[in-house]
Structure formats: structure tokens, C-alpha cells
Amino acid sequence: MENVSYVFVAFAIVWAVVFGYILLLLNRQRRLQQEIDLLKQRLEDRKGGD
Amino acid sequence: MKITILLWISLALMVTALYLIFVIAPIERTMGIVQKIFYLMVPMGWLALLSFLVVFIGSILYLKKRSLRWDILSYSSAEVGVIFTTLALVTGSIWAKPAWGVWWTWEPRLTATLVLWLIYLTYFMVRSFATEESRGATFAAIVGIIGFIDIPIIVLATTLWRGLHPGALIFQGGLDPTMLLTLIISLLTFSTLYALILMQRISLKNNEVEIKRMKELSQPFN
Amino acid sequence: MKFWNQVISITWKDTFSEIRTREVISSVLVFTLLVIVIFNFAFGANQETLRLVAPGILWVTFTFTGVLSLNRAFIPEKEQGCLEGLMACPISREAIYVGKMLASLLFMLIIEAIALPVFAFLFNLPVLTLPMVTITILATIGFVAVGTLFSALAINTRAREMVLPILFLPVMVPVIISAVNASKMALSGKPWNELASWIQIIGVFDVIFLVVSCLIFTYAIEE
Q: Among B129, B150, B161, whose Cβ lies nearest the Cβ of C171?
């Protein structure tokens, strides 16, 4: 029954990679959103200053 | 809020799939518990094909319509596709060890997957080598089209090359109905997951484009 | 008719400049002979071993030859600014593709026509048979069909010489597998019908990629 470890490793790797990738995407999305907000703010300020 | 609904559906499917795989589906007679890897390996291979099909369609539309939307779709799907192809290779390799005693064997489907993986690596490479970004997108689209058309020929050649064990993946006695159901639910789970990840990747890419546009917009002021 | 006139004039232009400079054929030919000789050292001179690895050596050599000569298909044009002139001509992009493809095919077939007898001589193998010639011609058509497209694409990238092989090799895998296996059978004197399925794969590849490459070639060279 040592073969159980192969099954375990296969499932662990697949789910770890899939969730890791999703988390990575969400994290990058959050940072980009912050940057967009910042840029928007700055553009608004510029417009106001003219 | 489409994404939230999709998220809950995929979570529900995930639990169902795991339950079916480990509790309901019978343990295969000749291969034992290792056969359960099969429920991961087949969806991974399927998703590799599905995502490269999306790359193919997106590439054709990009060349025809020249709209950035289609390039973003192809790019995102290619990235997701490469990840799933990598996972297909990893699970295939973990399957090969107990089944054939080696980590890597030039089994036709495994070989074809490896070639596929290499082709789609070049999809990203040609993009980074291009002198301009729009040109990189065009070149990547060409690779996306040529690569996908090549798939059936690769499969044909590798299958004929290794002529042996044609049904090695499907076991003696065929698939039991519960096994088939488990496989279908598993395929469904990963397909939903693919849609979810693809949508997320596309909106991320859209934001990247948006930021670049805004930076260019704010440039003349500085 | 007009299309073929354009095609022939492009092929002729390339052939003519090749006759004058002898840039591609002579250098690639020397390279090919060197590779064949060096492989000989890698596998030893044992006749039995050589018989086993000969088809592999032959096709690895021809693949390298293909990459090397296809790399030269567009780079000189780009370096001398001829490509802009060619694009400005009232010639369809398909005619440019077919013309360039035929010129590369011609060059590669000349190189192979010289390399195959040398190969037969050095390896003591019956290489010059009808099946072997058929396999070589069909596989070479596959090489230039895809190679011309990728070669045009590569000139507009950084590290041009690297881009072509990186794109070209994985796509050519089915042709290489088929050519090696068909050659193995042909060299051991198997009849045609056993070779048929391999030759069919190469044939299908040729037809599909000639059509597809011709259709999307315009996107590879556009400015």
C-alpha cells in the first residue's frame, strides 16, 4: 500500500499549484488595483491644477 | 458577480469530485489505488488542449480583427495552458513510476504533451524577443495557430512511433460506470476552474494594459 | 498566370544571387559534411552500431542544415534593406512566400543531393534508393514550408539566429520522428507498404503547413 504516497503527492502537487496560482493572481490584481487608484488620483490632481 | 457564482460552483464541484474519487469510485483491480491519479491526469491533459484551442481561436481573431482584446484572451489562456500542461507532465510522471517503474517513459501521450509544452514555451519567448509589443503579439498569434494545428500530427506520429500499449491508460475490462461518472465530474470541476482562472487572468491583464495607458497619459505632464 | 510569374521571378532572384555569392550552399554544405564526420566519432566506427544510429544521424544533420540555410533566407534581405523594396513591389504576399519557399527548397535539395552520396559512402549504407529519396524530398518540403514562415518572422526579432531554431524544432517533431523511422525501414529494405503510414504523415504535414503558412505569411513580414 506504499503506492498511496504517489496518489497523495499527485493530488497535493496539483491542488497546491492551482491554488498557488490563483492566490498569486489575486495578489497581483490587488496591487494593480492600488496602482490604478493612485494613478487616477494623480491624473485628477493634475487636471484640477491646470 | 459572475465570478463569485462560478467560484461557489467550482468549490461545490471540487468537494463532489474528491468525494467521488476517494469514497465512491472502486479501487481498480490490477493497478490498485494508484489508478486514482487517472482522475487528475485526464483533466489536466484535457485542459491543456482546451486552453490551446482558446489560444488558437483568439490568435486567429487577433490577426483578423487586430483588437487587443483577442490578444489578451490568447495570452491569458496560453499562460493557464502552460501551467496545466506542466501539471499534466508532473501527474503523468507520477503515474509512470508505479505503473511502469520509471519516472519518465516515452509513452505516446506523455511525449506529445512534452512537445506541446515546448511549443507553448516558445509562444512566450517569441513575444519577449520581438522588437515591439504589437509585433510580439502578432508573432505569438502565428505560433498559437501553427502550434495548435501541429497537435493532431504530433499525436499521430508519437502514437505510431511507440506502437505498443495502446490501451495502457484505460485498464483491462474498460471503465466501470462509477469510474466514468467520477471522471466526468472531475473533468467538469477542472473545466470550471479553468474558466475561473482564465477570467481572473484576463482582468489582471486588462488592468496591466490600463496602467500602462494611464502612465503614458500622465507622462507629458511630468 | 501572373501569380506564378511573380513566384518564379522571386525564386530566380534568390537563385541568381546565390549563384553569384555562393553564400548559402557552400557554407552549409561544408557544415553538413562536418556534422556527418563528427557524428561518426561520437558513435565509434562499429558497423553494427552505425547501422542502428545512421537514420538518426542523417536526420539530425538535415535538421541542422535546414535551420542554417533557412536562417539565411531573409537575413541578407533585411541587412541590405531589400525587404522594404520587395514589400513595396506590387506582388502579393503569397507570391513572396511561395517564391522564397521554392528557393529554399531548391538550395536544400542541392545540399542533400551532395550530402546523401557522401553519407552512403562513409556509412556503407544503401541510401540512394527510391524510398530514401522520396522521404528526403517530402521531409524537406515540410522543413521549408514551416521554415520560410518562421524565418520571415525571426528577422523582426532580437537574437534572430536563435529565434528560428527555437520556433522551428518543436513544430518539426512529427516530421523528424516520421523521417527517422521511415529511413530506418527503408535502409533495412522494407517494402513500400510498410513505409506508407510514415510517408503519409509527412505528406499530410506538408500539405497542411504549406497552406496555413501561405495564409498567415503576410502577418509575419508586415511592417
A: B150
Amino acid identity of residue C47, one-letter, is Q
Q: How far apart are the first and last CA of chain B?
A: 38
Is the distance from CB of B48 to CB of B85 less than 8 angstroms? yes
**Nearest by CB: B33 against A3, A9, A43:** A3
Model confidence pLDDT, tens digit, residues C192-216: 888 888 999 999 999 999 999 999 9
Distance from C-alpha of B64 to C-alpha of C15, rounded to nearest angstrom: 34
- The cell for C24 is 548559402
pLDDT tens-digit readout, B172-213: 556 778 888 888 889 999 999 999 999 999 999 998 888 888
CB C119 within 8 A of CB C125: yes
Tens digits of residue pLDDT in B19-49? 888 887 777 777 777 788 888 888 999 999 9
Touching B: A residues 1-50, CB under 8 Å: 1, 3-4, 6-7, 9-11, 13-14, 17-18, 21-22, 25-26, 28-29, 32-33, 35-36, 39-40, 42-43, 46
Q: Which helix (H) or strand (E) holds C97?
A: helix C93-123
Quote the radius of gyration of chain A (alpha carbons, Å). 22
Distance CA C91, CA B217 (A): 40
Report, in angstroms and rounded to the nearest whole number, the Rg of chain B calculated over CA atoms.
Answer: 20
Task: Count the alpha carbons within 13 Å of B59 in the hemisphere toward its beta carbon.
Answer: 27
So where are chain C's domains? 2-221
CB atoms within 10 A of CB C134: 17
Average pLDDT score over residue span B129-150: 92
CB B212 within 8 A of CB A39: no
Phi, psi (deg, nearest 5) at residue B132: -125, 160
- The answer to whether C199 and C134 have CB atoms below 8 angstroms apart is yes
> What is the distance, to the nearest Å, from the Cα of residue B75 to the centroid of all Cα atoms in its chain?
13
* Contact between C216 and B143 using a beta-carbon 8 Å cutoff: no
Q: Which three cell numbers stand for residue B3?
A: 465570478
CB C122 within 8 A of CB C37: yes
Cell of B68: 487587443
Q: Are the CB atoms for C35 and C63 separated by under 8 Å?
A: no
* Bridge partners (DSSP) listed for residue B28: B32
Please state, in angstroms and rounded to a whole number, the distance separating the CA atoms of residues B114 and A33: 36
pLDDT over 90 percentage in chain C:
43
User: Chains C, A in contact: 3+ Cβ pairs under 8 A?
Assistant: no
